[in-house]
Design a protein that fits this description.
The complex is a heterotrimer of chains A (90), B (239) and C (201). Chain B is of the alpha/beta class. Chain B has two domains: 93 residues, Elongation Factor Tu (Ef-tu), domain 3 (Beta Barrel); 124 residues, Nucleotide-binding domain of ferredoxin-NADP reductase (FNR) module (Rossmann fold). Helices cover 20% and strands 33% of the residues of chain B. Chain C has two helices and eleven strands. The chains are: A mainly beta (90), B alpha/beta (239), C mainly beta (201).
Chain lengths: 90, 239, 201
């Protein structure tokens, strides 16, 4: 089965195209259940028409990313807030 | 983070299914043990595909190494393991991933548990441990199917030392000549070979997703702090 | 400019000239893509509902009721926005025309919803006139969970993200309401022959 989730860490390369820092090292607070942990630990579904990161606690969608050659769409509504350590350089 | 040009300098067969590619990447800025790269291959008609591969070489070496397991009908691995030859070029992005890393800047004990090709980033950590002269106690528990599937067989023997132990368990080896362990990495084996939770080791678990989930759950059930158990799931088939 | 790697072909077999929409490649296997875990709904808990445009329940079938509706065997080509296509795939399912029979509605749009929260939107007319089914069988067998079983939407004339896996019903709407992928970059309609992959394509 090709849909078993990976760790959010596996999306660090794709997200590095968009952020000036290693966003997978940031902590996210889930907008659905307020679970807070490193983005690297979220459940990553990367075999999809886009990338989806889901909360490890409630399964709610925290991040969706779609990329075409010309642009990317990023939905972060499932994240209430990001905590970005000063050391999270790419 | 942009795509960098990589040129194959050398291909090293590891097992019947696994090849290490030694690469020249002129724009490489260095990496940490445990990180990976995203590899992109493009065909002459523009078709392209990407996959992630863990870096097998430790920091500080000129040429980085990727160890790739051939997946039947895979997108990239058939090319990387059977077609790629010295002089061939492709693109990679990285290093990426700052979470599943071991830098060796503390002396806490380290338990590495790898299944199949999950041993690759753990090998980078072992090599870094050796190259940096670390005295942190490091133990690799490596599960493979048969002796012929053990990646880095010779390298692992050479790396074992005063502060580095390697235990291999085989799950499908039928030869009576194998005098080592047999069977899956389960709670009993982890309790026997790993350290007690009271010494608070850093645990790194890598391999196919079902393997990682079973081992991580077992470590936590044994009492290890979940915050000190880091996982790198490779997906359903690993590699 | 990308670096071309000598001899790289990837897993695709061939770009079937004229057989597949632009930009698509044929594959031998049946790739599984998903935005979340595979749901695990027991058949005794499964139902398919159609809600009308004022939110009322217009129709509902339990699994047994659904499986006693007339069944069609259909052979269709399917096209995924991630560029793979499969020709001549064989499905068994209930036509959406059958499910919409007797439902009186002024709605022009529909949202298909699934276990796990996935949604996708379509004009209602694209679900009618023999163009869409709720499929429960693939290649002569029960539809496997990883491919959307027990039942999925099948709308082969649009990109396959519109064929919602694990479908549980339709909500009829006066206004178009972009679904899971349509709201984050994918084309609202998704015609593979006009290569409508992303917004503004």
């Amino acid at each position: 089965m090709d849909t078993t989730p990976l760790d959010g860490n596996a999306t660090a390369g794709a997200l590095a195209e968009l952020f000036a820092f290693n966003v997978t090292m940031a902590m996210t607070t889930c907008a659905h259940c307020r679970d807070t942990r490193s983005m690297a630990e979220l459940r990553a579904y990367v075999r999809a028409p886009g990338i989806v990161l889901r909360c490890r606690s409630c399964g709610g969608v925290q991040l969706r990313l779609v990329q075409s050659t010309e642009r990317a769409w990023l939905d972060l509504r499932g994240i209430e807030v990001l905590q970005i350590p000063a050391t999270a350089t790419v | 983070m942009r795509w960098l040009e990589a040129t194959v300098a050398e291909t090293i067969p590891e097992t019947a299914q696994v090849v290490t590619l030694r690469l020249d990447v002129p724009a490489w800025r260095g990496h940490r043990a445990g990180q990976h790269v995203d590899v992109k291959l493009t065909a002459d008609d523009g078709y392209s595909a990407q996959r992630s591969y863990s870096i097998a070489s430790p920091p500080g070496i000129d040429r980085i190494e990727l160890t790739v397991q051939r997946i039947d009908d895979g997108e990239l691995s058939p090319w990387l393991t059977t077609v790629a030859d010295a002089g061939d070029r492709f693109e990679l992005r990285g290093p990426v991933g700052g979470w599943f890393v071991w830098d060796g800047d503390d002396t806490a004990p380290v338990l590495l548990v790898g299944g199949g090709s999950g041993v690759v980033p753990l090998m980078a950590m072992l090599r870094h441990h050796a190259a940096s002269g670390s005295t942190a106690a490091m133990h690799l528990i490596y599960s493979a199917r048969t002796l012929g599937d053990v990646i880095y067989r010779q390298g692992l023997e050479e790396l074992a030392g005063p502060h580095r132990a390697v235990s291999v368990t085989l799950t499908r080896e039928s030869s009576p000549d194998w005098a080592g362990r047999r069977g899956r990495v389960d709670a009993d084996l982890l309790a026997e070979l790993g350290w007690p939770p009271s010494i608070r080791p850093h645990c790194y678990v890598c391999g196919p997703t079902p393997f990682v989930e079973a081992v991580a759950d077992a470590l936590v059930a044994l009492g290890h702090d979940p915050a000190r158990v880091k996982t790198e799931r490779f997906g359903p088939t690993g590699g | 400019m990308s670096i071309v790697s000598r001899g790289f072909r990837g897993r695709r077999r061939q770009a079937g000239a004229g057989l597949v929409p632009p930009g698509q490649y044929l594959v031998d296997d049946f790739p599984v893509l998903s935005a979340g875990p595979t749901p695990d709904t027991a058949l005794e808990d499964w139902d398919f509902t159609i809600d009308d445009e004022v939110g009322g329940a217009a129709a509902r079938w339990t699994w047994d009721e659904f499986r006693s509706l007339p069944v069609e065997d259909v052979t269709v080509d399917i096209h995924c926005v991630t560029k793979w296509s499969k020709l001549g795939t064989r499905w068994q399912g209930v036509s959406i025309d059958t499910l919409l029979e007797g439902i009186d509605t002024a709605a022009e749009f529909a949202v298909a919803f699934s276990d796990g929260g996935y949604t996708t939107n379509l004009p209602l007319e694209d679900l009618q006139d023999g163009r869409a089914w709720v499929a429960f069988g693939f290649d002569g067998e029960d539809l496997e969970p990883e491919h959307g079983g027990p039942a999925r939407l099948l709308v082969p004339h649009l990109y396959f993200w519109k064929s919602a896996k694990w479908v549980r019903g339709l909500r009829l709407k006066q206004q178009d309401e972009p679904g899971f992928w349509e709201s984050v970059g994918y084309h609202n309609y998704g015609d593979p022959w006009r290569e409508q992959r992303y917004w503004d394509d």
